[in-house]
Write a structure and sequence with these properties.
By secondary structure, this protein is α+β, with helices and mostly antiparallel strands. The chain folds into 2 domains: 6-102, no CATH class; 134-239, no CATH class. 55% of the residues lie in helices and 16% in strands. The chain has a 3-stranded antiparallel β-sheet with strand order 3-5-4. A two-stranded antiparallel ribbon has the order 1-2. Strands 6-7 form a two-stranded antiparallel ribbon. It is flat, with a radius of gyration of 21 Å. The protein starts with 5 loop residues before the first strand and ends with a helix.
Length: 240
């Protein structure tokens, strides 16, 4: 059985933590012609206008792209990309997605299958429990921190969570929590409004102005919980 939720023309379409779909996989499903690469589509006026409209009308980022990882987009952009390729591929994508959302979960066909399913679920729950126990000291440290006042920068939070900085920054961008502006990580508007970040402006010794984003105590508490759930999902995926 495939580990992908969505399959088109026998190609599994990967998803990121925010539920966006991989355009590179869709390109392969469409036949992989060079003229249909995601990079050619994302420079079109059609894409630019639609991505801008989506950014104004939904939470999170409609698109994320990173070298070596691929380009991931929301469902609306998947449909638009498929339509750009051809009407036939557009129809295939619509039908594949309709089949996905209406598909009923497979039920065990025998007592042995039911026992096997129960055992698998119990193993995943045990893996999640172990991860939570391992993270408990770090979470207790976070709870002590958020009782005090003060702001933390990206590197301080990564160190606090014992997270790899590159992996942590990529995850923040993929989740739509932050985005890159002139090489700096900046918070997305919904998370600023939720009080999870503060943005400070200043000037360097050479006179150049700069802005920097820092996590508030509330933001540290929230991101620690979200990062913990992300780690649990990773462990569950490996155990599956």
């Amino acid at each position: 059985m495939s580990g992908f939720q969505l399959e088109i023309a026998g190609v599994g379409i990967r998803q990121d933590d925010a539920g966006r779909y991989c355009l590179n996989d869709l390109h392969r499903a469409a036949g992989g012609e060079p003229r249909h690469t995601p990079g050619r589509w994302t420079i079109t006026q059609q894409f630019g206008e639609l991505a801008e409209e989506l950014s104004r009308n939904q939470d999170g980022q409609p698109l994320t792209s990173a070298a070596g990882v691929g380009t991931y987009v929301c469902k609306e952009l998947v449909y638009a990309y498929a339509m750009w390729i051809s009407p036939a591929f557009h129809l295939r994508v619509i039908r594949a997605y309709d089949a996905l959302v209406t598909r009923a979960p497979a039920l065990p066909q025998s007592f042995a299958e039911a026992l096997r399913l129960a055992a698998d679920q119990a193993e995943q729950l045990e893996q999640q429990r172990l991860v939570i126990e391992q993270q408990r000291p770090a979470m207790e440290f976070v709870e002590k921190f958020v009782d005090s006042s003060g702001l933390l920068g990206f590197r301080q939070v990564a160190k606090l969570l014992k997270a790899n900085e590159r992996e942590f920054s990529a995850w923040l961008v993929e989740r739509g929590v932050m985005y890159r502006l002139a090489g700096r990580l900046m918070p997305a508007a919904p998370h600023m409004e939720a009080g999870r970040f503060e943005v400070k402006a200043g000037a360097a010794d050479n006179g150049h102005a700069f802005t920097t984003a820092r996590f508030t105590p509330k933001g540290v508490e929230w991101i620690a919980g979200e990062w913990g759930k992300h780690q649990v999902r990773n462990i569950s995926g490996e155990a599956a």
